[in-house]
Write a structure and sequence with these properties.
With 352 residues, the chain is α/β, with parallel strands linked by helices. The protein folds into two domains: 25-166 and 240-351, 3-Layer(aba) Sandwich (Rossmann fold); 172-232, no CATH class. The chain has helices at 3-24, 68-71, 73-79, 107-124, 137-146, 149-152, 170-187, 209-232, 240-251, 257-276, 305-313, 333-336, 338-351; strands at residues 26-35, 38-47, 52-57, 84-88, 97-98, 129-135, 157-161, 291-296, 321-326. Strands 1, 2, 3, 4, 5, 6, 7, 8 and 9 form a nine-stranded mixed β-sheet that branches. Helix 11 links the parallel strand 8 and strand 9. Helix 3 (73-79) crosses helix 13 (338-351). The protein is elongated and about 75 Å long. The relative contact order is 0.14. One of its GO terms (molecular function) is peptidase activity.
């Protein structure tokens, strides 16, 4: 092999290696977005080569966003290797600074702040394509933001995880979920019926009163135990690993869970009344952006019927909207089914 050919091959290998390293390079930035008195900390982490940014809208109301990269590893470990995740503490939440009063703590202002963040990202990166990922109350904010046609022009897709869209119907949907699960258990053959669960039920007219009473007691006990299992899907369990992640967040990040807890306790109440009146599913006909709805089958906080209503009413073309029910999850699919959640989010962003 001639010296010239050897040099050429060496250069080709070097170029390939540089390309490979750049494609795997990690991106980490921290900055602040200022808007109408609020100074909001923003952390962007993920794949340097990706032009796709996923803005995480946290639950709450008044829940902090920076903590999600630590408390829910699915975002950092499974999604960041593919795209850039954007975490921020909103007005009235977490470690947001500045001077503003409680009169600015409402959805409209959160939407204006979010729009400022979206525009900031696009001004810093002219190739940026922005997706919103709203969890619970973050789903409320994301959908509310997209009701404005001008906002839709800047968003390439909306991902909802247990999004709370029709909070005014929460009690009604919770009752509907109870009946759905009871019917499901009858269909599965786990119980014959759930007559014993109904008000006013009496074994007095049964052919075998003693057996009726025993069967009724057994049914009530089984259903009670089953609903206790359902609640386990909806609880955040502070395991040893979770505790270590919180400590790491406390001492080795810009955020602080203690400050975040104080902010949520103090400021969440200002958002709550407005949140409790939300009925968004009937207002989404003009929304056209791609949408992915992820909901736990056993979510007792935000039953999946809310996502079904949005899916049915939204103006997004059929081939650009998708709803996935996670069969082993409640309100915290980031913990109960992180792999399926990550796969669904990654695929959706890739397709759009």
């Amino acid at each position: 092999m001639s010296a010239i050919n050897l040099i050429k091959r060496s250069l080709i290998v070097m170029v390939a290696m540089v390309g490979l390293l750049s494609s795997c390079q990690r991106y980490d930035r921290f900055f602040f977005v200022k808007n109408k008195g609020a100074i909001m900390p923003v952390k962007v982490s993920g794949k340097a080569a990706s032009e796709k940014y996923i803005i995480l809208l946290p639950g709450g109301p008044s829940g902090d966003g920076l903590i999600y990269s630590t408390v829910f590893p699915v975002f950092r470990k499974q999604i960041e290797p593919h795209y850039k995740m954007v975490y921020y503490d909103q007005r009235g939440a977490g470690n947001c600074q500045g001077v503003y009063d409680s009169s600015s703590l409402h959805l409209q202002q959160l939407g204006e702040d979010l729009d400022k963040l979206v525009r900031t990202i696009k001004s810093r990166d002219s190739t940026a394509r922005v997706f919103l990922l709203g969890y619970s109350y973050g789903g409320t904010l994301g959908l509310h933001y997209l009701l404005e046609p001008e906002h839709q022009k800047h968003i390439d897709g909306f991902i909802s995880i247990a999004g709370a869209f029709d909070r005014k119907q929460q009690a009604e949907n919770q009752q509907k979920l109870t009946e759905f699960l009871l019917d499901k258990w009858v269909q599965d053959g786990a119980i014959d019926n759930y007559e014993a669960m109904k008000a006013g039920y009496d074994c007095g007219q049964a052919p075998d009163i003693a057996k009726c009473k025993m069967d009724s007691i057994a049914t009530v006990q089984w259903v009670t135990d089953k609903f206790a299992e359902v609640q386990q899907y909806n609880r955040f369990k502070l395991s040893g690993k979770a505790a270590l992640r919180l400590l790491r967040y406390t001492f080795f990040s810009p955020g602080n869970p203690i400050q975040s807890g104080i902010a949520e306790g103090q400021n969440g109440r200002y958002f709550q009344q407005e949140f409790n009146e939300q009925m968004l599913s009937g207002q989404v006909a003009e929304i056209r952006v791609p949408i992915l709805l992820l909901n736990g089958r056993y979510d007792t906080n935000v039953p999946f019927f809310e996502a079904e209503a949005v899916y049915g009413n939204i103006g997004t073309p059929v081939h650009k909207k998708k709803m996935i029910i996670l069969e082993a999850s409640g309100h915290l699919p980031m913990i109960t089914e992180p792999d399926q959640l990550a796969e669904s989010v990654i695929a959706f962003v890739k397709e759009n």
